[in-house]
Write a structure and sequence with these properties.
elongated, mainly alpha, about 70 residues, 2 helices
């Protein structure tokens, strides 16, 4: 696979993860608006959201070239 194809695949995956992160944020917000809300479900969704954010950061680091100081 070429460098450009690798970069494009990473960018596509990052875009998908941003969409999932945004969707999770929406779901969490809606759950918190309801009374009573399932605290365990909210915690699981927040944990998933954090995991997705970590994946985004890791993939974005792969796109950034290492700069020697």
């Amino acid at each position: 696979m070429s460098q450009t194809a690798d970069t494009d695949a990473l960018k596509l995956r990052i875009e998908q993860l941003y969409l999932e992160h945004r969707d999770l944020d929406d779901v969490i917000s809606r759950l918190l608006e309801t009374t009573p809300h399932d605290q365990l479900q909210v915690q699981r969704l927040k944990k998933r959201k954090l995991y997705v954010k970590d994946q985004i950061n890791a993939l974005e680091r792969q796109l950034t070239p290492d700069i020697l100081a």
